[in-house]
Structure formats: structure tokens, C-alpha cells
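Example 4.3 (complexes with small molecules)
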Amino acid sequence: MFLTDEEKRILDGSEGPGKQKAMEMLYALGLTFDAEKLIPVKRAHVALSGQEGDTYWCELLVSGGATCAITPTTNPYWDTCYLTKFYEVTKEELDLANRTGDAYRKIGAKLTYHCAPGLSTGVPFFGEHIAYSESSATPYVNGALGARSNRESSISALAAAVIGKTPYYGFHIDENRHGHLLIEVEADVKDCYDWGILGHVVGELAGYHNPVLRFKHKVNPGPEDYLYFGAEAATSGAVAMYHMVGVTPEAPTIEAAFGGGKVPATAAVITDKDLKEREAKLTPATGDINLVMLGCPHYTYDQILEIDRLFAGRKVSHNTAFWILAEAGAVELAERSHLRQKLELLGVRMVGDTCIDEPCWKSFEGHLGLTDSPKCAYYRERRGQPFAIRRLSECVEAAIKGRID
Ligand code: F3S
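Answer. The structure with FE3-S4 cluster bound is encoded below.
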């Protein structure tokens, strides 16, 4: 792998041990994937999670004197000031969260604490080379926006931010972005929940390959639709790049989606029945619920508005908590428009900067929760809380009754 003289000097430690560690990481990654060289990036997104490994890596770089050459945006951990008013955490859990914030502050990250950077806090240009971690963010920036990112880890994305470069391999290279399998979609996808279920089916079919979707019915996905689609395709599979013929920017035609080469035979046809079957497989749980959790990935302001419309002044059941996790800017907008205050009177709370997969939610574990996101259910179930999955309108009705039938 070719390194410039300056890159070699950093690797030799002449710019301090922090930058040296970051360069060692990029160099090892480049060697592993046969990268020819490093390329400059102006944007990175670090999926910090407030978990020990991510925090350790950032502290290690900081203690070696590293700061970021480009300011990366960051994923959420949890709002320690606000949520500790409601829920108990241990001193160790709070200390780790505070250490995480301190470390990323010191290294010079942009503390956006938002897991959908491609929607607002870090929107790349078409064709721009970037280094984004967060499994739901990568398919969005690659597939929907046509930017170029590998499926970075928080470790490699932070290293890229410190050096301002990333190894040139994978989705940075034209031929690796081309489609691998053709999926015909005959199903009617109407809202972001349907897009999520479609993503779940596609992810399982595609694995880590690039699916090309051709739709029977005209589709016009919005930001939340792309986000839900990619989040679930990266949950049931490892999809980081996709094409939708006549819709996404690198697929004006089916031939273009496959790189101008031969279009393969159809690998699968997805119908309404397939989506219903997937939904039935994902959503069998019923019973009393102690939590409705929305915002994995983070909700937008428009989704908060939709919740207000669906509640229509009705209240959440006294034995159920209702939480919306959203980008801090969306929460701020809700505050300004008094939507937040209005919803709080109904028992609907919202919080920015927070992920569903954090210790602040542990008091709900052991009881049934409800969400509109299979990704949320997947992570929460790993922490010991069974989850039912339903579309948003059903989540709202269940919250009012305190149970899902
Ligand atoms: Fe965001 Fe956490 Fe879900 S980072 S996508 S809320 S698992």
C-alpha cells in the first residue's frame, strides 16, 4: 500500500503516539482490504455508543495527543442530565457516559449525538468520499445520496477523522458500487414502516451484496423511507449499498445499476404477501406493554408531528411510558412550536442525543415493550426486554390502551 512521506512520518510516530495509533489503524485496514492508498475525506461520522471499547479508543488517541483533522459528527449515547430525572442508573454507567462525552469533546468531535447524519447533521454531496460508521447511516449515504463510504466501525471512522483520510477500497471504487442481484418488488410500499419491512426482507436476501430493486408500482421514497429501508437491510443483512431503478442517483436505468454490464436474471420477487408474512414473523407478541419506544433510527420533526396527529388529544395509559428518541434539533423545533409541551400533557415524552441501546432504559427490562422498528426490537431483546413491532398508528392505539392485541 502506497504511503506518502507525510503518512510514513505519522506512522513512525513523529507526530505523536495518538496520530500514530490512528494511522496504524488505517494502514492495517488498508492492508487487509488491499487498498492502493489513502484518500482524503472531509466528513466522518463516529458511531460512539458510550460502550467501553469505543470510549477506550478515543481516550487512547487523546492521551497520545491526537485531535481531529476533520470534525466528525457522532452517534448518540444518552442524555445523562434529562434521563436521570426519570430513571436510575449506576454510578459506573453514569461515569462511563461522562467519560465518553469528555473524550470526544477533547478530540474535537462535533457532538451531534444523532444516528441519521445523512438527513441533517452531516449531509454529503453526490460522489463525495466519506468515512461513516453506524449501520443505518451507511446505506443511506451510499444508496440514497450517492456518497461513497465503507461500512466503517467507530474505531476506523475516528481514525479517519484524526488523519483526515481513509483507505481507498470497497465502496469508494466504482465497480464495487454496482448491483449484484436483481429483486423485483411487486409489493405496494406506502409508509416508512412498509419500507422497513421491505428492507428486512431485502437484507436477508442480499446479505452483504448490493441489491438492485425494480418496482412494479411507482415509488417516491422520502428521507424517513430510505432511512427505515437501509436500517433494516443492515439489520437482517449487511447491506451498505443499494440501487432502486429510476429512483436512486446511481440507477437511472437498470443497466446503469449493474455498471453498464449484463443484467442478471431476477433473483427474487417480493409481493405484498411476502411483506405480510415477514411482518407476521416479526410481530407475534401481544399483551400488556410498559413502554412504547420510537426513534431507532432517530425520529424527524415530521414524524413527531404525525404522532400528534394520531393521538388527537387522547392520553397514554397510566401503566405505559411513551418515548420518542429524536435528533436534538427536532426536539428543539418541537419545543419552539409547543408541540413538545402539548404531547407531554398526553404522556408522550421526547429526548434528543439518546440511543435505545443504553443502560438508562433498563428499568423496563423483563416486560413487553412496543416499537415500530425491527432494529429497536433486535437490540432491546438482547438486553432482556421482549418487544412487539407494529406500525406507528397501532403503536399509538396500543399506548392509549396499555396493551397490544
Ligand atoms: Fe440510532 Fe441507537 Fe437505533 S444509534 S439507529 S437509536 S440502535
